[in-house]
Amino acid sequence: MRAIAVINQKGGVGKTTTTANLAHGLALMGKRVMAIDLDPQSHLAAHLGLFERGQSGIDELMLGRLDIGEVEVVDARDNLRLIPAGADLGLVERGTGDGLPGERLRELVQSYKDSCDFVLIDCPPASGLLIDYALTAVDETIVPVAGDYLALRGLSDLITTLRDFEEKHDLVSFNQWLVVTRFHTRRRLSWEVRDTLISYFPERVLATPIRETSVLAECPGFGKTAFEYKRGNHGEADYGALARNFVNEEYADER
Ligand SMILES: Nc1ncnc2c1ncn2[C@@H]1O[C@H](COP(=O)(O)OP(=O)(O)O)[C@@H](O)[C@H]1O
Ligand SMILES: [Mg+2]
Question: Domains of the chain (ranges plus CATH)?
Answer without folding.
Answer: 2-248 (3.40.50.300)
